[in-house]
Write a structure and sequence with these properties.
Elements: H1 6-36, H2 42-56, H3 62-69, H4 79-98, H5 105-121, H6 128-160, H7 167-206, H8 218-234, H9 237-246, H10 252-272, H11 278-292, H12 300-328, H13 332-353, H14 378-386, E1 393-397, E2 403-407
Antiparallel strand pairs: 1-2
Length: about 425
């Protein structure tokens, strides 16, 4: 580490900040369904997930090697490009966290990296075939495969068990759900923690600290694992709420099926070096489990917002990364301005999030359409306004907003209107 310059140190710290945001952004992947079904208490769930993310960071380096030597050409890439890429990824992560959208931290990083590299050295700096085979194809295939597997597993679970609502059965599935949630956390560590390892290794290559194609040094593995574990422990409660309650209502059987399916897809991709989105895999599995239960409902309005965020992640982070690289190319003052914009943008997003905070106390609240105090939201209020009153009463609303109920007159009441004449 004696060869690390000030710029490289800034890039390493920024990469670890991204890793931290990746941790709390993706906590929902493993623990949202476990928390929503009551299998684990919120704080216990995120603590367990943090430990297993740290362990998973030490199990493989295949994905890290894909990031450091596959997405872009290492030769001719300046360290400032890595910094600009991280700026784009961090800001997109924070924005989608504020909105409670489970978008892909992985694709935010890829988008920022691609945008910054193209701004720096043109399209020749990007390995198009690697992006297609190890990023785009897994991005489409992973949520579909995980969703179909979860749907099939859910259908099978309800078919082979005559009384899935029995107390003993639910208890057993909750235990299985805890185990499968741990497996997802472990898988997340083997995939997402490595992306930061790959970015830091790429930065080290640009400074000549390590040779191209090298594995991440041990200090990089340890620091990346610690950063993602700390972010996971803090808990991305807004996204946990969306995944656990916003997409569909899950029973323990469905949660177990969703998490097992997602973990299988993530571990297989990590073994093959595919840098897929764990968020998309887990979200697809949750929707598949929701559709697998008879009478289960997926909230497609929430799902649609999520799909839009998925589609925007790569280009949006790419544009921010390209803009940041344009600034860093101007010299020291450009790097300083980029850093100031990153800190300022992050502070603004954090301040906005404090207006309606979501934490472990209200993460399982059912008032998804309103704020966290239980106040009905716009949709709920609109539905109530157009719902007809019960038969036998008329709702009258005074100018001051107070409601009074005028009961229909009983038969024979002098105030009752005369009955219509019978047709001749």
């Amino acid at each position: 580490m004696e060869h690390i310059t000030l710029l490289l140190a800034i890039v390493v710290v920024t990469a670890l900040v991204f890793d931290f945001t990746n941790g709390f952004h993706d906590t929902a992947n493993a623990m949202a369904t476990t928390i929503s079904t009551g299998a684990l208490k919120p704080k216990t769930a995120v603590a367990m997930s943090a430990v297993l993310n740290l362990v998973g960071a030490f199990l493989s380096v295949e994905v890290a090697k894909t990031i450091s030597g596959g997405i872009i050409n290492e030769e001719g890439i300046r360290t400032e490009v890595i910094f600009a890429a991280l700026v784009g990824a961090i800001l997109w992560n924070l924005l989608t966290w504020l909105l409670g959208l489970p978008s892909s931290s992985s694709h935010a990083l890829f988008g920022g990296l691609i945008g910054a590299a193209v701004m720096s050295a043109g399209w020749s700096a990007v390995n198009g075939s690697t992006i297609v085979t190890k990023v785009l194809i897994p991005a489409v295939a992973a949520p579909i495969v995980a969703g179909l597997a979860a749907m099939a597993a859910t259908k099978l679970t309800y078919k082979i068990k005559a009384d899935p609502e029995a107390k003993a059965t639910a208890k057993g599935y909750r235990a299985g759900q805890i185990a499968s949630a741990g497996l997802v956390s472990l898988a997340h560590g083997t995939n997402d923690a490595q992306k930061t390892m790959g970015i830091i290794t790429l930065a080290l290559v640009t400074q000549g600290v390590v040779a191209p194609g090298s594995n991440p040094p041990l200090w990089v593995i340890v620091s990346a694992g610690m950063a993602i574990a700390l972010g996971t422990y803090l808990g991305g409660w807004r996204i946990i709420r969306t995944m656990g309650k916003g997409l569909t209502d899950l029973q323990p059987q469905q949660g177990f099926a969703a998490q097992t399916s997602a973990a299988t897809v993530i571990l297989a991709s990590s073994h093959l070096g595919f840098s897929l989105s764990t968020t998309q895999s887990c979200s697809g599995a949750v929707m598949g489990a929701g559709l697998g239960r008879k009478g289960g409902v997926v909230r497609w309005s929430t799902a649609t917002r999520m799909f839009v965020a998925w589609g925007l992640t790569l280009p949006a982070a790419g544009l921010v990364g390209a803009a940041a690289e344009f600034l860093t190319k101007q010299g020291t003052w450009g790097i300083a301005v980029t850093a100031a914009l990153l800190v300022g943008g992050s502070a603004v997003i954090w301040a906005l999030s404090r207006r309606q905070p979501v934490d472990h106390h209200n993460v399982t609240a059912d008032d998804l359409d309103g704020d966290d105090s239980g106040t009905p939201g716009v949709v709920t209020t609109a539905i109530a306004a157009v719902t007809p009153p019960p038969a036998g009463s008329v709702a009258a609303v005074a100018d001051d907003g107070l409601k009074a109920t005028i009961h229909a007159p009983a038969p024979g009441d002098p105030a009752a209107p005369p009955a219509p004449a019978a047709a001749v």
